[in-house]
Protein: Tetraspanin
Amino acid sequence: MFVVFLLALPALFLRTNRTWLHLHAIGVTLTAFVTLGIGLRIWFDTLETHKNLAPIWSKQSPAIQSLLQARFNCCAYNNPSLFIRDQTCPTAAVAAQLGPCMVPFGSFANQFLDVVFTAFFGFCAVDLLLLLGTLCLIKERKERERFRRIDLKLSGMVVL
Structure:
């Protein structure tokens, strides 16, 4: 996005040149597609949050799993009988009563990821508006060049 912004700077100073605007429009289009792809990838991953979080949970140390159990007030990820003994889950009876952490942990992750992919889709909307503005400016500059050539032709000057 920063490189595409830099492509727009020469277009601001060279008011008769449309080449930089064309490059900027191509860059904005590519950026929009990449941003949309990232947003869609995150969105598709949220559809399988419970499956994607299981390996992450299992890779954590017992101390981290204990902290997660305390944070979400649950025991183990998807099977309460495989809990880590701590203050939240001292016995199997308490673990069975509290239930697994899959739903509260997944809900927490989904709330965060929803904000992330919505922000990516918002950037796509901004890219679309920027592209429309750039295309309008290209058309305006083309029209001004056309009228400049017509004026030069009417005044008898040679048009290059």
